[in-house]
């Protein structure tokens, strides 16, 4: 029998990666097992974090704590690795109508939203945008270069010999009274961070996932934008000049991992409504978001095996929810701190 671990994590998407750094921070002895040949949601994510979301621009759940945790967490890993992958950027949201600008004026007077609004302006900001009514600039947002973060994390784990490339089936996981055994390694806790694949596993498929396919593209255009642009779609400046990530689509019905013509056309139509200039599509990608029916994450332990944990269901907010959710799980194990019912899988115990 191989080495004994405190934790084995299965999956090295954003969730498994962030959990790894949390365990390093706490000096735990752990191993990450991942099948990097599988398509993952994280690989196709735009990387945005943002406290005001949705069609009606509402403050997201627990946003104060979650956004602070997001920025603190990724900045601390940047410092540790002496690398850059978190870009704090304001969002410029061009008004779509007079009613829209009136709504933002009202938000400007509310205590909840005031702190996020930097400026309302009633004239066009960029001549290559269809923003003749002006727009609002909000803050406390930005994006993570997800691919870079995942690659650097894997490189670090490999350098410490705590990364194994393998596909884990449920039959690979054996449980005894005192430990979990997986590919001949023993661990006190196994944490499954397998994203949307968990929907088909024998451990947690009873949880009400609500998977959503998404597509996005990279475009090039000969203009510079300082902010992230949001008007029905997102246009996120890349670290490479004149390259932008644009997305994303939402499809609950067709859950394959192929880029579809329909999805790309939807993005093109939305781009037409905001861009006043030529652009070129240079990359297309797709992924499946591990979303949940009640739009809250899944954190906790298997009802019949307290050594098998899960962090999943981060939906379209994996970048900001991963630092928060991983902290909650470790606090629960280490300090016996309660996992809030809203995100605890216990809320669905009747489905098990
Ligand atoms: C088009 C699109 C755009 C998005 N944009 C954003 C955004 O801007 N901001 C944001 O916050 N979120 C965004 N998301 C959502 C975000 O990508 C997800 O919330 C997040 O990636 C989920 O991460 P995860 O680690 O839980 O799952 P995944 O990223 O899917 O990772 C799961 C990992 O587990 C591994 N794995 C699975 N099964 C096994 C197995 N049996 N054995 C071994 N390894 C296994 C996989 O290979 C993978 O590495 C977007 C999603 C999509 C599809």
Can you walk me through this structure?
With 352 residues, this protein is of the alpha+beta class. The chain has 3 domains: 4-45 and 147-207 and 294-351, FAD/NAD(P)-binding domain (3-Layer(bba) Sandwich); 91-138, no CATH class; 212-289, D-Amino Acid Oxidase, Chain A, domain 2 (2-Layer Sandwich). 26% of the residues lie in helices and 28% in strands. It is built from 7 helices and 21 strands. It has helices at residues 14-25, 63-81, 98-109, 111-114, 146-159, 261-272, 318-335, and strands at 4-10, 30-34, 48-49, 52-53, 58-59, 86-88, 91-94, 117-121, 135-138, 142-144, 163-165, 173-175, 180-182, 185-192, 212-220, 228-231, 233-237, 243-247, 280-289, 298-302, 305-312. Strands 1, 2, 11, 12, 13, 14, 20 and 21 form an 8-stranded mixed beta sheet that branches. An 8-stranded mixed beta sheet has the order 8-9-7-16-17-18-15-19, with helices on both faces. The protein has a 3-stranded antiparallel beta sheet with strand order 3-10-6, covered by helices on one side. The longest helix has 19 residues, at 63-81. The chain is globular. It starts with a strand and ends in a 17-residue tail after the last helix. The model has no long low-confidence stretch (mean pLDDT 95). The structure holds flavin-adenine dinucleotide.
